[in-house]
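Sample pair:
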Amino acid sequence: MIASFLDYLSLEKKYSVHTITAYKNDLISFRDFCLTEFNEENLLEIHYNQIRSWIISLVDLGISNKSINRKISSLKSFYKYLQKTKQLDLNPLAKHRALKVEKKVQVPFTSKEINNVINSFAENNFKSVRNKLIVELFYSTGMRRAELINIKESDVRVANKAIKVLGKRNKERFVPILPSVIETINKYQKLKMDILSTSDAFFVTEKGNKIYETLVYRIINSYFSNVSSKVKKSPHILRHSFATHLLNEGADLNSVKELLGHSSLASTQVYTHNSLDAIKKVYNQAHPRSAKKKNDL
C-alpha cells in the first residue's frame, strides 16, 4: 500500500528522491506507532483518534509544530491517494486543522553585505573562483541549494546568458545570468580544466567530485559570518535576499515567482513582508494625500 503510493509520487507526481524519502519515513513512522500502540498495521482501518494520539506523541517528543504539520501533510496525501484509487471511502484527516506555527520573519542580507562578500574574493585560484561563483549565482538567480548542486555542464548556456535549472517535481526552468556572473563562469570553467573529474556536474570539489549540501552551506556561512551579524547565514537567505531586493526595486510579483520556480503566488508572497517598508516609502512619496506631498504644495 505504502509502496504503491510512493510509486505514484515518483512516476506520476514526479517528486524528487529526497521528497519521496521524507514521505516514506513519515508513513513508516506512523504505521509503526499504530502497530505498537493499537496493535494495528492496516492503515485502512485507522481512525482520527489514533492519528490524534500520534500527533500528541510527537508533541511530547518535542518535535516542532511545523515538522508535525509536514508529517500530517504526508499522511493526508497518502489517504487522498487511497480515496483516489478507491481503496478508502472517507479520509480520516478530512477535518483535521493544522497546528499553529509561529511565523518567523527571515531577515535578508543587505546589498552592502552581499557586495562585501563578492568583493572579498581576491584570489584567482580554483577554490576561490568557484566559491565566488556560488555566491553570485545564488544572489543573481535565486536558485535553491539543490538546484545549484545539480547543475550540469550542459545546463550552462553562456551564449544564451541563461542556465537550465531542474526544480522541485523535476520542473525545468531557465534563469537569466548577468554579464558579471558570465565573467566569473568563464574564469571558473578555465580553471576547472585543470581539475581531473569524471563527473558531469558543473560544480565540483578540488578532487573533481560533485559538490554536496554541507559544503555549499559551509561556504555561504563562512563568508557571510565575516560581514554579517545575522543569526541565519545560509543559501536560503541568499535566495530570500534575491527575491526581497527584486521586489524592493519594483519587480513584478509574477516575474519573481517564475524566477524562483514557485508553483503558486502564495509561496512568493512570503517575500513581500520584507518589502513592506519599501512599499510604504513609495506610497508616501507618490500618494497625493501623503504628508510629503502636502508639504510640497
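The first strand starts at residue 156 and ends at 157.
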